[in-house]
Amino acid sequence: MDSQVPIAWVESPLQLLGAAEWASGLDRPIVVAHRLTGPQMERTAAELMARGARFAECVPYYGIPWELLRKHRHWAIGDGFSGQFRLAASVTRPQQVTFLDDGSHSIALADALLGRIPYARPNIRESRSSVFLGTLTRDRMLGLAARERLTITTAFPFGDDRTDGLRSLGARVGHHTLDWVRETARPRVLTCTRVLLGSSLPSDSLVSAESYLRWVSAEAAAGEMAYFPHRRETPAMLKAVASLPGVSIHDAGLPIELVLAGTTQPLELISLSTSAQVTLGHLLRGTRSVLRTGTLTNA
User: What is the pLDDT of residue 205?
Assistant: First the structure.
């Protein structure tokens, strides 16, 4: 395999979508190394390839794909804050890096490169070794930027100030609106146009299960509702949600962006604060859909 062929190193379904979107604009297919973080990863990879994603290979892996990283010197990285990426970048130095979207963390990554915040995952207390590797990684990324070998491609709003700042460092910034995902979407008609996006917050112990279920129940009381689970929701939570009056579970096993991109219906889409509000805002543009953010408390 040609060492100039880029490799996308991704750890989530959204990052896989970002890899497909980025690859659609290149002059050659890319190799994808996707971390096995759950069944949705393999399903998403298969679905993207069925839609014609420009993936020459799609290789599942655990840990760090050292062999592939050594073969391919242009890395497209899904999680720029990953400890494994920091370690790999310090041992096997890439000649070129492209950062793909990782939800709202993409904005934090831009701020870390600009020196506005530490090069660390937001709201996480890191070890000294992680902090050291973060500093080293930032320095190396800035070195690539100075040689015009660092790119950030994103569907998220960076704003002119952030974008101009990155470009002043030498980084290239490309904005997209998930055009490839929309163009390759499969037509879909939903039987219920009120849609609630499930959240991982209870699974991550950031809100109580009781508070979350009260919120879902209150939304369902306003009318029949299709519930699309988050990939990290527990079976116990899904069972509890399914028992609520007016709620029907729709689990396609794919990212919500792939599921809803093909609809032309006006939807009422309800969620807690999530990066999917940005991506779905692009994909549902022109459908007269309404995206609404819910709130809940642990009280």
Answer: 85
pLDDT the model gives residue 252: 86
Neighbour-count burial for 66-102, b at 16+ CB within 10 Å, e otherwise: eebbeebbbbbbbbbbbbebbbbbeeeebebbbbbbb
Residue 108 has a pLDDT of 95
* Model confidence, pTM: 0.92
Starting at the edge strand that comes first in sequence, how are the strands of the sheet with 225-228 ordered?
A: 247-249, 225-228, 194-197, 268-271, 290-293
Q: What is the CA radius of gyration of the chain?
A: 20
7-182 and 185-293: identical CATH topology = yes
Distance CA 233, CA 76 (A): 28
Q: What is the CATH number of domain 185-293?
A: 3.40.50
Cα–Cα distance between 261 and 242 in angstroms, integer? Answer: 25
Instruction: Tokens for 63, please give them.
Output: 């840990």
According to CATH, what is the number of the domain 7-182? 3.40.50
pLDDT less than 70: residues of the chain = 1-3, 297-299
Report the amino acid identity of residue 80.
Answer: G
46's CB contacts (< 8 A; 6+ apart) are none
Per-domain boundaries in the chain: 7-182, 185-293
Helix 159-168 vs helix 105-113: crossing angle, to nearest 10 = 40
pLDDT in tens, 222-234: 999 999 999 999 9
